[in-house]
Amino acid sequence: MKNSLGKSVITFIIFSSISLLYGEGFTSKALLNKESAYIKEPVLLTFDIKQTDYSKVMFFEFTLTENEAYEFYRLDAKVEDRYQNAQIHYTYLLYPLKSGVIDIGFELVKKVTTKEDVAYSFSGDRDNVKRMTTTDSIIKLEPLKLTVKPIPEGTLLVGDFTLTHQVKTHEASAHEPIPFSVEIKGTGYPPILNNIFLSTDDYILFKEEPQVNTIRSAKHTYNTVVYPMAMSSAKSFTFNEVKIKSFNPKTQKSYMLTIPAQAFNIKPVAQSSLIDKVDSPAPIKVTDWSWIGTFLGYIVVFISGFFTAKSVQWHKKEKIKNDPFIEQINQTSDPKTLLRLLIAEDSKKFAPAIEKIEAHIYQNKPLDLKAIKKELNA
Questions:
Q1: Which residues cross the membrane (predicted)?
Q2: Which of 60, 204, 269, 352 has a CA that sits 20 to 30 A from residue 240's CA?
């Protein structure tokens, strides 16, 4: 009996909330891919809007309500462009953070205008863009309820992870830094560990910010987190075993990620080697101006280092930048779809592009869609 029921279950549509808002001129539907989850177990939420009143032009602003009980990320927002027939499909990744029954709230604003007002609002020139007039309504929606199960006590990571570590050497001189790194990879809630790697009475631990790379999708969240560190000590010491308790929601079982205990041999530095035998640097003579060249050299090194760091920082910002709105622009295949997308964004910087697309649609003027996309990506 259980097996036959299990085969007939459609995995995705387990828990849903459907709002029939024909009086508002549209319908909405919210779905969760599971009706219960563990703390920090990923949950997929979709929200669909479909216009039913075709006499008006409608735009929508939608997001989930901020709440301490969960965190969320928008993965996608697909707009099907049928003029005066808006259809939008939102996809969110959600992580519950507290056990119990939690409410997932929605914030939806409906913006109504007319076809004539859309054309009029962008009829001004580049320096005199006319703002589109809309009638805005805040739509009240019932929240979805999600049952959240607690994870075992002492759990630090939630997901399916592996751990590797690297130590450059197990022998060093007194106070010499020993590079040491830990890498955690796998799917699940980002494996960020706080205050687990600490200095002891035997050694000093130097830490940098963890290097986090997270790729989120509707299937899973894949993480690679590297913890770069270094140890330093005046005498030989043992790095004690570290155990990280983890929990896999799929198997509903706990497991341990382990960094084994390791011994480090530290060679003391002879006292005599710490005393300078040569007067260095030598006293500066009254007529010796060589220090100016050295000083200028330091300035050049400092400036070059500063701009190098800045260029790396700028490069990182450019690399990290991944605008989902630009991706939607690049995915559009016809002028009407692009027009609706730009108007919904309601930004003056898109006015020149909207003006060209309007001229193409309403006045049959030629349009290079590829060139327009290139301008919007600039």
A1: 289-309
A2: 269
Nearest residue to 39 via CA among 284, 247, 204: 247
Average pLDDT score, the chain:
81
For residue 273, the 8-state DSSP code is: G
SS3 of residue 155 by DSSP: coil
Determine how many CB atoms are found less than 10 A away from the CB of residue 121.
20
Q: Give the contacts of 197 (CB within 8 A, at least 6 positions apart).
A: 182, 205, 207, 227, 229, 242
Torsion angle (degrees, nearest 10) of CA 237, 243, 244, 246: 170
Local structure of residue 130 (DSSP, 8 states) = P
Peptide bond into 335 cis (omega under 30): no
**What's the token pair of residue 212?**
């986090």
- Measured CA to CA, the distance from residue 35 to residue 37 in angstroms comes to 7
Q: Supply the pLDDT for residue 10.
A: 38
pLDDT at res. 5: 41
3 state SS of 109: strand
Which domains does the chain possess? Answer: 2-149 (2.60.40.1230), 157-275 (2.60.40), 324-377 (no CATH)
**What is the C-alpha to C-alpha distance for residues 280 and 287, in angstroms, rounded to an integer?**
18
Q: Please, are residues 208 and 201 in contact by the beta-carbon 8 Å criterion?
A: no
Rounded CA-CA distance 150/347 in Å is 44
Alpha helices in the chain (DSSP H): 2-8, 115-121, 290-320, 324-331, 335-345, 351-363, 369-377
The tokens of 171 are what? 């022998």
DSSP, res 38: E
The segments of the chain whose pLDDT lies below 70 read: 1-23, 81-83, 116-132, 270-293, 295, 301, 304-323, 344, 346-347, 362, 378
Q: What is the pLDDT of residue 229?
A: 92
Minimal CA–CA distance to 266: which of 178, 191, 184, 148? 178
Q: What single letter denotes the amino acid at residue 269?
A: V
